[in-house]
Amino acid sequence: MTKNRKRRSLEQIVKALQEREAMLAAGKSSAEVYQALPISILDCRAATRALCR
After folding, report:
1. What is the pTM of this model?
2. What is the mean pLDDT of each run of 10 residues along the chain (53 residues)?
3. Is residue 1, in this structure, part of any structural domain at all?
4. Cα 21 from Cα 30, distance rounded (Å)
5. Does a structural domain hold residue 34?
6. What is the pLDDT of residue 25?
């Protein structure tokens, strides 16, 4: 049995990363931020690494 993963577009990932930065700047905790975002912590980290190269 395979697990279907939802592929997100670059625009969706960038938007989520911008939302993450805004929430963190507003003083929310990391747990609150990642629960509110539509992508996982690992997706955020991977996207940040890929975009910063």
Report:
1. 0.67
2. 68 86 93 85 78 74
3. no
4. 10
5. yes
6. 95
Please give the Cα distance from 46 to 4 (Å, whole number): 19
Range of the domain at 23: 10-51
AA identity, residue 1: M
Rounded CA separation 21/34 (Å): 11
Count of structural domains within the chain:
1
Report which of 53, 52, 47 is spatially closest to residue 15, judged by C-alpha positions: 47
For residues 18-37, one letter each, b for 16 or more C-beta atoms within 10 angstroms of the residue's C-beta and e for the rest, the string is eebeebeeeeeeeeebeeeb
Report in angstroms the alpha-carbon separations of 19 from 3, 4, 5, 11: 27, 25, 22, 12
